């Protein structure tokens, strides 16, 4: 499709900073990830979603992976489901068709969030230059996700595996966030 | 290096004589060694006068070697940057440093201000309050401004890198002196994460210069061994050159770590630390004594003299007198004698019976005088001798150095930041904090303890409590006695204007007397009236002496007088460190439009409206803003324009109760909105004030899309959520903010439909099928497409949305136009003026914190609502019904301009000062109408249609007539085409 | 800086991640239309402004977005109770040091 070629999916909206290799870390724009936002009117939505074959976490922390999807708990009645860009529209349609009274609603979210992958020695330490990340010992455990503020930007942090972390950032702020990451990763002195 | 003037000893100290370091002092080449601070290097090079005092330009020398020194302020340029003002003792010496005095002109040692006696008639106690009074304070301000401050910024950008960091630990140990190190040692093996922060470059604290043996090792070796052990323990770290600058609620701390290399301070790290527990081992600083002419260069704190000798290998003078009120001063005499300095006398203010080191002094042949008071000094620019009154008569001593030991002031600042109360301990003659904040313990000098054994014991107890273990055994300590402090007395037989209390701010005993005479007897008043303790040294050496004098003069105890409030920071920190890289584009989170690159290519001039948005576009026919804005507006009025409205909020409200839920928020009844329809309205806060405005689209049953104003989407979504959770928890509704998922490009103008047709949408866009205030969903080349027919400009307008990854593609496609031509790109300024011509409100500009729906002409809408909505009840409160309220009206110029912000003067007034009755909220020259127009909030505005008013702005007046706010197409014919 | 453990996502949140919502237990009149001016303005404006233990509302705004209730000492910032929004404060007369 011609228009897809014009504006590569997952761009940082005009930024030339989509990729960067910074001190001990690499930053990638994960253009291969999209997402769906699922919001529910009732507290028992997880069970309802299970009834259509979608398993979502019932509490904060561990993510649930299933059929190429990764479900992240946002609040007692909302989730982000990471998926492939090609799967996004179908997933939205599937959920909305199942709940036609809209007690559960799925929305396209792949363009709302930019997923920035930070890989390297200690991604959480890098992020701690913009916020506590976690006040609990051990930080965010592998396989878990957490919403917090980093550099005054709301992020969904997903600890994929040791040394790899995904930051879901609202798209309009993604360029700032990457610019900030590059600045924060600078080691101004060997003594640092 | 010339040895002339050199005070460096051939041996001794912890400096590395094999590594010389060159630097300059006021342009003069000097040399120091690795391990020197700037202060020790300057003293070693014979620099006696380091600055001039603040008010009287008195020559001042080094009094201390750390943050407590009131005198040695210098500016330093090192390889990494410029520091306009820092205490010499706080700066490690580095190769190539250019050091300058910051007070005194033309130089610190020769100051014209002092010769002329400038300032003498000027700066007595209460100067500011007696002088800085209306109407003529401004005469004095420039003079005082020039006279104040230490150091000048050089105008360059901060070049030193700074970084922020956040960290959480189990235990913060403040200070790596003997107490801090012992506490940390006690925590080894506990499994707790521990951060030990030490202000100095090396751990050890007083062990660097005091005589002590711990566990059979020299004190410094013991300290180094523990430091090594800590570093080797996982989860424990020592940060040196790290100031714990502030303590905040819930044990959050600000730390500033200087990263030092061979050429100076390379970078700084601003650490925000959370600690579950705290062991405060910040120590104490020495207090000077009060006597005549006590500010002369050559008078130093006794502990600083010991440190110069033992840590830096510097003998500051040839003939030393020690004046002390306690045992520690005697140790300076012994150290000096050992370093080859002739000790002329030890003057103890106490009686003979209290002196524990007397036998040693006698054995060394040092003359000792008890109950001695200094009554005069022989000194020009350098101390030459003193006159002492003793019980057996007046005696004179020749000397070029005087070491004073007046007891100790615990560094309780951090505990006091947290609200801990300083309490005067009469036995110790110190302020301590017996009650510490929750989770805190203290050990060592900060508790008032002067015994090393006791300090180590306290530390190990604290560590045991922190780690909930048995305390380790206190090591065996051999160290000389430090204690025995005598009372702080007013010096007798000496004029009060010869006794200096605050050396940095030039506050004398006579100033305290004036303050008391004028009844400024509260300690906080004394501070502000005399500026006592308000200097950059924060009164570390002066506060206690000052309030002891206040107590004496008012016949009170020091415990009754109290002490002034301690506030962060503990010591000055660089602004650049606080900024920490947040500068330029990184100063705060910026938001970029999805088609940002296209706007840049089109020559947009950007403004920050919460998002980086095009304000206007450079074009071949428009090189300036006014021309561009006029052409952009003309394009919309006569042809078609294209505008990026992607920042507009998109909040999905869904669920079985969504309609009823939305109806509770908007002044218009959203429950009656049909699928495919759009409605504009305002929402209020519970006080009846307009909170937001925008359109709500009904996309289908139980499915709505609210469009909050740009930059307000997150707030409105949170607002919905709050009411959902806290007031209507059983409401079956869900809120999802999907703002950035969609770009929204508006096409507006008589040809807008033709441009929309370029997309060839899969739904009918004919005027009959797609009416004003309707919404359609379909697809464009297989991707989701949503078009709302709404108007902000007064023209036919479509708002076209696709997922934002296609923003550039959509914008470029629309921009190509059709066979009849291409739309013109429209920036914010033209867009806002177009809506102003139409009289549509711009939230936050045309409304303020008091504007309700009635004031913007929506009273009829409110009256139609039978049911409740947020804020409705407040609209019938007396203040809401008052006819004095400012109402939004239009203004048409009669003469002159209409500028936003101009005040509307009361009838009969031609110029201020006079009563004003409102202000212009928006104003511009309307190219469409050919004259200036504006909107204004004016008291009783609705009833004043046709009235002429006077506007006043920035010294200019103009006249305008009050009209309807709708200047353009009041019948709404154009937007319905 | 206030630190609170959110009772919904169980994360310890620092002040930057939280939004303060004022005193808890402020009841909106059931039918505003029949509330007197006094009742309505009491609801809008009148707060105890306690120096001491205060029951208040907080939102985990940068986390899970949930509103919850906290009993906090307005001088010491000690926290005595943290509850979900639908839970009721219990009568605590003895400070439970370091709850949270």
Shape of chain A: elongated
Instruction: Give the rounded overall mean pLDDT of chain A.
Output: 87
The CATH class of chain C turns out to be Alpha Beta
From the 3D structure, determine the CATH topology of chain C.
Answer: Folate-binding fold
Strand content of chain C: 25-35%
Structural class of chain A: alpha+beta
As for the number of domains of chain A, it is 2
User: What is the makeup of the main sheet of chain A?
Assistant: 7 strands, antiparallel
H-E string of chain A = HEEEHEEEEHEEHEEEH
CATH architecture of the largest domain in chain A: 2-Layer Sandwich
Helix content of chain C: under 10%
Distance between the termini of chain A: 49 Å
Strand order across the largest sheet of chain A: 1-2-9-12-11-10-4
| Number of domain modules of chain C | 1
CATH secondary-structure class of the largest domain in chain A: Alpha Beta
Poorly predicted ranges of chain A (pLDDT <50, ≥5 residues)?
Answer: 1-11, 13-18
Number of strands of chain C: 6
Quick synopsis:
The complex is a heterotrimer of chains A (192), B (977) and C (100). Helices cover 20% and strands 36% of the residues of chain A.
Keywords:
heterotrimer, A: 192 residues, alpha+beta, Gyrase A, domain 2, Alpha-Beta Plaits, 2 domains, 7-stranded antiparallel beta sheet, 5-stranded antiparallel beta sheet, 12 strands, 20% helix, elongated, disordered N terminus, B: 977 residues, Ubiquitin-like (UB roll), FAD/NAD(P)-binding domain, 7-stranded mixed beta sheet, 6-stranded mixed beta sheet, 22% helix, SoxG (chain A), TrmE/GcvT-like (chain A), Sarcosine oxidase subunit gamma family protein (chain A), oxidoreductase (chain B)
Provide the fold topology.
The complex is a heterotrimer of chains A (192), B (977) and C (100).
Chain A: H1 2-6, E1 19-22, E2 25-29, E3 34-40, H2 45-51, E4 61-62, E5 64-66, E6 69-75, E7 78-83, H3 88-98, E8 104-108, E9 113-120, H4 123-127, E10 144-150, E11 153-161, E12 164-170, H5 174-184
Antiparallel strand pairs in A: 1-2, 2-9, 3-7, 3-8, 4-10, 5-6, 6-7, 9-12, 10-11, 11-12
Chain B: E1 16-25, E2 28-34, H1 38-44, E3 51-52, E4 59-60, E5 73-78, E6 81-87, E7 97-101, H2 112-116, H3 127-131, H4 137-147, E8 161-174, H5 178-187, E9 194-197, E10 213-214, E11 217-218, H6 219-231, E12 236-239, E13 242-248, E14 252-261, E15 264-280, E16 284-286, E17 299-301, H7 302-310, E18 319-324, H8 328-338, E19 342-348, H9 358-364, E20 368-370, E21 373-379, E22 383-390, E23 393-398, E24 401-405, E25 408-410, H10 413-417, E26 423-425, E27 430-432, E28 440-442, H11 452-467, E29 477-478, E30 500-502, E31 507-508, H12 509-517, H13 523-530, H14 543-554, H15 558-561, H16 575-579, H17 596-601, E32 604-608, E33 612-617, H18 625-638, E34 641-644, E35 651-654, H19 658-663, E36 678-684, E37 690-700, E38 703-707, H20 713-726, E39 734-737, E40 742-748, H21 752-757, E41 774-780, E42 783-789, E43 797-803, H22 807-816, E44 824-825, H23 828-838, H24 859-864, H25 878-881, E45 886-895, E46 903-905, E47 916-926, E48 931-939, E49 948-953, E50 956-963
Parallel strand pairs in B: 1-7, 8-9, 8-15, 9-12, 15-28, 17-24, 18-19, 18-24, 19-20, 34-44
Antiparallel strand pairs in B: 1-2, 3-4, 5-6, 5-7, 10-11, 10-29, 13-14, 14-15, 16-25, 21-22, 22-23, 26-27, 30-31, 32-33, 34-40, 35-38, 35-39, 36-37, 37-38, 40-43, 41-42, 42-43, 45-48, 45-50, 46-47, 46-49, 47-48, 49-50
Helix pairs in contact in B: 5-6, 5-11, 7-8, 8-9, 12-14, 18-23
Chain C: E1 3-5, E2 12-14, E3 19-23, H1 37-45, E4 53-59, E5 67-73, E6 79-84
Domain SoxA A3 (chain B): 497-581
Domain Aminomethyltransferase C-terminal (chain B): 887-969
Pfam family, one (chain B): Pyr_redox_2
């Amino acid at each position: 499709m011609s228009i897809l070629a014009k504006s590569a999916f997952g761009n940082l909206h005009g930024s030339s900073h989509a990729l960067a290799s910074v001190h001990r870390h690499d930053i990638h724009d994960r253009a291969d990830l999209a997402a769906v936002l699922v919001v529910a009117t009732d507290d028992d939505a997880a069970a309802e979603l299970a009834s259509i074959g979608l398993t979502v976490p019932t509490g904060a922390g561990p993510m649930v992976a299933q059929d190429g999807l990764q479900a992240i708990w946002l609040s007692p009645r909302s989730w982000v489901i990471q998926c492939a860009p090609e799967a996004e529209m179908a997933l939205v349609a599937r959920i909305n068709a199942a709940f036609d009274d809209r007690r559960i609603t799925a929305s396209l979210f792949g363009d709302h969030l930019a997923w920035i992958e930070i890989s390297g020695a200690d991604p959480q330490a890098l992020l701690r230059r913009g916020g506590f990340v976690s006040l609990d010992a051990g930080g965010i455990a592998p396989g878990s996700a957490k919403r917090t503020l980093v550099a005054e930007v709301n992020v969904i942090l997903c600890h994929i595996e040791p040394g790899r972390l995904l930051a879901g950032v609202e798209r309009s702020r993604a360029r700032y966030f990457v610019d900030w990451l590059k600045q924060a990763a600078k080691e101004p002195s060997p003594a640092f | 290096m010339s040895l002339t003037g050199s005070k460096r000893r051939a041996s001794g100290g912890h400096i590395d004589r094999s590594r010389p370091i060159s630097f300059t002092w006021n342009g003069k080449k000097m040399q120091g060694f690795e391990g020197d601070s700037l202060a020790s290097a300057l003293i070693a090079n014979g620099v006696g006068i380091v600055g001039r005092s603040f008010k009287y330009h008195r020559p001042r020398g080094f009094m201390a070697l750390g943050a407590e020194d009131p005198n040695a302020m210098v500016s330093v340029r090192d390889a990494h940057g410029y520091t306009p003002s820092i205490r010499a003792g706080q700066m490690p010496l580095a190769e190539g440093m250019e050091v300058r005095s910051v007070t005194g002109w033309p130089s610190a040692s020769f100051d014209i201000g002092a010769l002329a006696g400038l300032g003498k008639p000027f700066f007595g106690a209460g100067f500011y309050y007696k002088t800085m009074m209306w109407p003529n304070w401004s005469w004095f301000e420039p003079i005082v401004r020039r006279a104040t401050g230490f150091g000048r910024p050089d105008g360059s950008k901060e070049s030193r890198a700074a970084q922020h960091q956040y960290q959480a630990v189990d235990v913060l140990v403040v200070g790596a002196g003997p107490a801090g190190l012992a506490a940390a040692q006690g925590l080894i093996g506990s499994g707790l994460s521990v951060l030990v922060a030490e202000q100095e470059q090396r751990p050890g604290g007083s062990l660097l210069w005091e005589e002590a043996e711990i566990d059979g090792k020299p004190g410094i070796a013991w300290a180094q061994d523990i430091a090594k052990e800590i570093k080797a323990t996982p989860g424990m770290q020592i940060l040196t050159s790290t100031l714990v600058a502030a303590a905040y609620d819930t044990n959050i701390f600000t730390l500033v770590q200087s990263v030092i290399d061979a050429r100076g301070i390379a970078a700084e790290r601003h650490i925000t630390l959370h600690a579950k527990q705290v062991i405060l081992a910040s120590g104490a600083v020495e207090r000077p004594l009060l006597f005549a002419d006590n500010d002369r260069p050559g008078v130093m704190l006794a502990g600083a003299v010991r440190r110069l000798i033992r840590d830096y290998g510097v003998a500051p003078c040839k003939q030393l007198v020690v004046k002390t009120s306690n045992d520690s001063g005697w140790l300076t005499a012994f150290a000096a004698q050992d370093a080859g300095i002739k000790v002329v006398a030890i003057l103890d203010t106490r009686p003979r019976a209290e002196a524990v080191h007397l036998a040693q002094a006698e054995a060394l042949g040092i003359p000792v005088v008890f109950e001695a008071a200094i009554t005069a000094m022989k000194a020009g620019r350098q101390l030459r001798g003193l006159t002492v009154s003793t019980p057996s008569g007046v005696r004179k001593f020749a000397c070029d150095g005087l070491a004073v030991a007046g007891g100790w002031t615990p560094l309780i600042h951090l505990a006091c930041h947290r609200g801990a109360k300083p309490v005067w301990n009469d036995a110790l003659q110190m302020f301590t904090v017996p009650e510490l904040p929750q989770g805190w313990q203290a050990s060592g000098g900060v508790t008032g303890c002067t015994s090393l054994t006791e300090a180590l014991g306290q530390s190990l107890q604290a560590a045991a409590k922190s780690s909930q273990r048995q305390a380790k055994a206190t090591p065996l300590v051999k160290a000389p006695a430090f204690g025995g402090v005598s009372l702080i007395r007013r010096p007798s037989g000496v004029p009060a204007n010869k006794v200096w209390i605050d050396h940095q701010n030039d506050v004398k005993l006579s100033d305290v007397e004036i303050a008391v005479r004028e009844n400024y007897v509260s300690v906080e008043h004394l501070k502000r009236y005399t500026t006592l303790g308000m200097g950059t040294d924060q009164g570390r050496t002066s506060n206690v002496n000052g309030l002891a004098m206040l107590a004496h003069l008012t016949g009170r105890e020091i415990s009754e007088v109290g002490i002034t409030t301690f506030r962060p920071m503990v010591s000055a920190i660089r602004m650049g460190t606080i900024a920490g890289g947040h500068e330029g584009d990184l100063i705060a989170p910026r938001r970029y439009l999805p088609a940002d690159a296209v706007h840049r290519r089109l020559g947009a001039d950007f403004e920050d409206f919460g998002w980086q948005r095009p304000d206007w576009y450079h074009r071949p026919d428009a090189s300036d803003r006014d021309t561009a804005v006029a052409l952009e507006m003309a394009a919309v009025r006569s042809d078609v324009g294209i505008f990026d409205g992607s920042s507009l909020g998109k909040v999905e409200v869904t669920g079985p109760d969504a309609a009823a839920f939305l109806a509770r928020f908007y002044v218009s009844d959203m429950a009656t909105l049909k699928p495919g329809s759009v409605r504009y309205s305002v929402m209020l806060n519970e006080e009846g004030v307009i909170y937001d405005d925008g359109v709500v689209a009904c996309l289908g049953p139980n499915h709505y899309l609210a469009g909050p104003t740009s930059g307000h989407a997150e707030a409105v979504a949170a607002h919905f959520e709050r009411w959902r959770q806290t007031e209507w928890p059983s409401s079956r509704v869900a809120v999802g903010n999907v703002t950035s998922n969609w770009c929204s490009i508006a096409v507006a103008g008589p040809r807008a439909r033709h441009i929309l047709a370029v997309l060839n949408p899969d739904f009918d866009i004919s005027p009959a099928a797609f009416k004003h205030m309707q919404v359609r969903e379909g697809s464009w080349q297989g991707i989701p497409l949503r078009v709302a027919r709404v108007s902000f400009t007064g023209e036919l307008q479509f708002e076209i949305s696709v997922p934002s990854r296609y923003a550039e593609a959509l914008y470029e496609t629309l921009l190509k136009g059709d066979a009849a031509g291409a739309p013109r790109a429209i920036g914010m300024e033209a867009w806002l003026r177009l809506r102003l011509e139409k009289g549509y409100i711009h939230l936050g500009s045309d409304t303020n914190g008091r504007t309700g729906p009635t004031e913007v002409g929506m009273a009829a809408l409110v009256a139609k609502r039978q049911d409740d909505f947020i804020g409705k009840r407040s609209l019938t409160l007396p203040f809401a019904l008052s006819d004095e309220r400012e109402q939004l009206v239009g203004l048409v110029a009669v003469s002159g301009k209409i500028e936003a912000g101009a005040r509307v003067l009361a009838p009969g007034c031609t110029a201020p000062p006079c009563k004003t009755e409102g202000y212009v909220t928006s104003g511009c020259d309307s190219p469409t109408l050919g004259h200036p127009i504006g909107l204004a909030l004016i008291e009783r505005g609705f009833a004043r249609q046709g009235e002429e008013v006077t506007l006043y702005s920035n010294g200019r007046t103009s006249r305008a007539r009050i009209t309807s706010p709708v200047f353009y197409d009041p019948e709404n014919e154009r937007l319905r085409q | 800086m206030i630190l609170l453990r959110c009772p919904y996502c169980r994360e310890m949140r620092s002040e930057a991640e939280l939004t303060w919502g004022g005193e808890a237990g402020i009841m909106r009149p059931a039918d505003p239309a029949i509330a007197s001016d006094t009742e309505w303005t009491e609801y809008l404006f009148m707060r105890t402004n306690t120096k001491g233990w205060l029951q208040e509302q907080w939102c985990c705004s940068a986390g899970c977005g949930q509103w919850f209730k906290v009993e906090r000492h307005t001088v010491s910032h000690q926290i005595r109770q943290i509850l979900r929004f639908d839970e009721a404060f219990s009568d605590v007369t003895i400070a439970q040091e370091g709850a949270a």
